[in-house]
Amino acid sequence: MAIHIRRRELIATLGGAVVTWPVASRAQQADPVRRIGVLMGLAESDPQGQPEIDTFRRRLQALGLTGRNVRIAYRWAGGEVNQPRAFARELVALQTDAVLAVTTPAVAALAEETRNSPIVFVRVSDPLGFVDSLAHPLAVKRMAE
Description:
Layout: H1 2-30, E1 34-40, H2 49-62, E2 70-76, H3 83-93, E3 98-102, H4 104-113, E4 119-122
């Protein structure tokens, strides 16, 4: 009789697993992984860059974006003239959900490379060079080609 009870317990356990497994997989799919690109115009060793990245990570965590549901791709241009453009292409190819650009050259490079990913930017010398209006900053100007 002990054998029959174990078999029943096993069947009940497996039956429960089959019922809950699809639910668990749907729950994982409901919380998609966000892809964020970060294009820093600074060198990775720049003393100003790392504290900014730390603050950025903390703010994402406060919003519930942690290592489980967000992937961040960092690119550090280090003041090199051609690097922002090359890195902008890389980040666009990753099909990021949004890109953070730090410095004017980083924003300019991203604005030339994409119309699909939202670009959030800081430390830009002339923001009106990139948006039609500060009152409506989501209307990005089309960059000259």
